[in-house]
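Cont'd.
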Amino acid sequence: MSFPIVHSLWILNKAGGLVYLRSFSDQLPGLNTNEQLVLAGTLHGVHAICSRISPITTSKSSGMQLLESDSFDLTVFLTRTGTKFVLITTPGHPASQALLNRVYEIYADTVMKNPFHIPEMPIRNEMFDTALDGFLRPPDFMT
Amino acid sequence: MELQVDQLKSQQVALGSWAFLFSEIINYNLKRVDGIAELESKLNWLGYRVGQRELELYKFRQEGTAKNPRQHTSLIEVLQFIHTHIWRSLFGKTADSLEKSKENANEYMISDNTPILSRSISIPKDLKNLSTESFTSGIVESVLDGLNFKSKVTAHSVPTEQYPQRTTILIKLI
């Protein structure tokens, strides 16, 4: 039996650029920076298509929320300002939406309140890294 | 922000609004200085102006109607007053330590493990000597000044494993 773990976290700015990527497990394929950026851009496009093809027109669709495959789940959380938080987890992870809410909270507290962060630019913030490590990294006995 | 009827609580300010204000202050000044030292002295000066008002206000609120207001005469008394009372009235807690420097007789240090003013600030690598707590050091400097102890106060970050934000306020008496 495998424990539900978080593989990685991506943060996309409102233009679809990858501003933050952090892996929490060693089971991921090694992608180079260029491939990562292309994938993030594609995901941004798919997300936009999803909100356009929504059949219900009375309320605006918030786009793709979950992508399931037999080896991983990809959960998307869209903020009001268009920033996207993407979490790649083991299939059927029970709390991925809740985790993303918590990530957003930490992001608002550490990244957005930091004077040295430029909005829409890549995130380099030690405090953010440590805070994420605290609850996204699987404990040693699980890996 | 939760509204409280309690008078002490109603004097509190949401930390989030402070974080955004302070962040803009730093960004504004960062574009107008030549180096870290100049930025720190600007923050120190801003803190100095806050400290002048804080000392006056604190004295008025605590002892405004008292018949014999307390006079701080000895240096230790003044330092303890800053470490405990000024800290509590500004930050809602006391500082974590007050020490005398071993190397120099005229130096004292106040340390705070979790300085509340720069709680959400993460210093980038290219500015790693910067301490935004220079603002606090300005407050300390002006309170000392107001109580008749001329000094030069600076802030230094001394991170530990447990407290990555730990900051020491170094007081150098002139």
